[in-house]
Specification:
Bound molecules: guanosine-5',3'-tetraphosphate
Number of strands: 6
Shape: elongated
Strand content: 5-15%
Distance between the termini: 48 Å
Strand order of the largest sheet: 3-2-1-4-6-5
Amino acid sequence: MTIRWFPGHMGKALEQIQDLIKKIDVVIEVLDARLPYSSSNHKLTELRRTKPWIKVLNKHDLADPAVTKAWVREFELQAGVRALPLSAKKHADTKPLIRLCQVMAPRRGKPGLPVRAMIVGIPNVGKSTLINTLAGKSMAKVGDKPAITTTRQLIDLHNGVVLNDTPGVLWPDMSDQDGAYRLAASGAIGANAMDSTEVGFFAGEFLLRRYPDQLLKRYGLQALPETPHDLLLAVGRRLGCLTGGGEVDMNRTAEAFLRELRAAKIGRISLEEPSPAPSIVIDKPNS
Ligand code: G4P
């Protein structure tokens, strides 16, 4: 395990959210559409009970649209949950979110009785960007590094919705090694906390299996490399990431490859899909 990102204590944040949930009408949980499972905080889901819940699949512009559709279907199997893919950077994308808040809290949204919504999510999923776009001005600091916190605020959107910012920082589950690597590949984990070459190999292996055509096209490859190592060698040569001696510089290559992945230069890529429904095993009575 090469990811050295030790999430801080979040008991207090969860306690505050638990208190606040009672006073709000709808929770807006922001997830990264490329990895909706690994970018969620699973403890938060346990607090939900019957509260209307919107799962915003943000960074939709970077994710594979077919996979995002599958996630929407999966999430909406849960009662009281709606899922909405969007790009928080685009104002037009955020309008359906306001409508959805009003639909999910039908007795509110009138003058003097706004829908009280709360925005929650792990660092770097785009909460601040979403708040700023919804508010039409800069209310929350958009970080150039993951894990920048914002102070709690109450924001009247003047359209029948009042927003509560997350009261504290929620962290993802870093005990799941594959999930941690997917978070690292997505850019949710600062460069200091990971080994870029290993994360590059992890991403390369996944893309070779799941998005081979996009790799062939982006890097002008005649044939698909057999291993992630061979893939990065080919990418390094293509991008000119060479040492003084003309060898491929693996670390620089991995960093460049990850930058390309995160900017959707290779295409719109999703790093995880909803798991297939578990098969139902019927216990046969002993004959
Ligand atoms: P947070 O509050 O949840 O921690 O996330 P924040 O809004 O700070 O966003 C984290 C990064 O994700 C920012 O990039 C932001 O621009 C980017 N982002 C947010 N929403 C979207 C989206 O819908 N699509 C895409 N492609 N990117 C999104 P950054 O590089 O850290 O900052 P900046 O250079 O963009 O200012």
